[in-house]
Amino acid sequence: MAFYKRSHAGYRRxxxxxxxxxxxxxxxxxxxRKWSISDFSYIAVEEESxxxxxxxxxxxxxxxxxxxxxxxxxxxxxxxxxxxxxxNFLPPRNIDLFPNLAENHIKIVLYVHNRxxxxxxxxxxxxxxKGIGETMLIVSHDGYFNEMDSIVQAxxxxxxxxxxxxxxxxxxxxxxxxVSKGDCQHKDDPSKKNCxxxxxxxxxxxxxxxxxxxxxxxxxxxxxxxxxxxxxLHSGHILFIEEDHFIYPNAYRNIQLLVKLKPxxxxxxxxxxxxPSDVKSKGEGWESLIAEKMGNIGYTFNRTVWRKIHAxxxxxxxxxxxxxxxxxxxxxxxxxxxxxxxxRGPRASAVHFGKCGLHQGQDKISACIDNGEAKFELExxxxxxxxxxxxxxxxxxxxxxxxxxxxxxxxxxxxxxQELCLSFAYMYHSxxxxxxxxxxxxxx
Length: 444
Fold this sequence. Notes:
Blueprint: H1 2-50, H2 52-57, H3 79-87, E1 107-112, H4 116-127, E2 136-141, H5 146-153, E3 159-164, H6 190-193, H7 208-226, E4 238-242, E5 245-247, H8 251-265, E6 271-273, E7 289-293, E8 299-301, H9 303-310, H10 313-318, H11 324-332, E9 341-344, E10 350-352, E11 393-395, H12 415-426
Parallel strand pairs: 1-2, 1-4, 2-3, 6-9, 7-11
Antiparallel strand pairs: 4-8, 5-10, 6-8, 7-9
């Protein structure tokens, strides 16, 4: 009993000392944790700024695809392709003129090929868009053409970032994705011509300048959403336009309104559009918003929709049609299980112009000639936001056009194109997709 009393009294005298030691230890632990977090944050910023591929792989946004025994692998880039790939990591230009992007800005992606006369028109129209200085314009090039590059470098009306597809068939003169030695051409019979390649459903072998259209679009989408430091963590909407789209002055303000209204007015809509799905239509002029099938002029969607599209990579990459939009309408959208509607205004804020298709204009013998000097008559209503937030929504159902069951126009039968396409879906989510000799940790 006496021993118990002495021990109990000793513990009471030592208790304050224990509390002090515990408090000091706790403070030290918190300080160490704080220093560790600060150091990690600094490293993460450095990674995001200088290591394009490795940083994107380390985000929580990583998506693991599982397509059986498919092994993603990108082609070995030639020296010129590597130099272009490095340009993709450069910061945007014109930051000195436009140091800050608006808090609610919607980034704009303009994808281009080799129609400089068209590019001049769309850039001139963008320069007159209200609010354009609040956002960033990302120009995605299908390969490299000097005149196209020079035109974009002259842009001064907003922040501009250029990216170049390093796997464009236009960059490879004697190897895949370009023309490889021994490739079959047109309707060659492999057994008679001693050539190789897989024909499409109509018996035609691959044409690099044709397949580049679909390759570029898919590479661009994967790069913008999952690769670029400027957009890979962006969860909101991104606006996509093409070099043969004339953009009205009210386009940007209208798209901001539509994005804001979509959750309330059309919660089941996947996107918003600047123009009707019928490229010949300029709109109905009604006092109502329109919900219809998703068009290919000025379409805008968010990361949630991109994830649904990305998950359908196999459907996209295996469908025998060289057109990205027909592929989407005929196989990807129908696989979602619900109608894919987009929300737009009753008047177009962008129009398609020109007569030369993307696959035309590059053959010297049969070049498509078009000076791109289209005339656009703008009314006052096209220069200011013209969407009323109180308008109801009219839904167009069972519209004509490509839909599930269409077998495609072909041009996409070679297994190499299908596998390259599917590898693009992996390239920011798996080190296995890196081409031979490329080290993600050193790529800056």
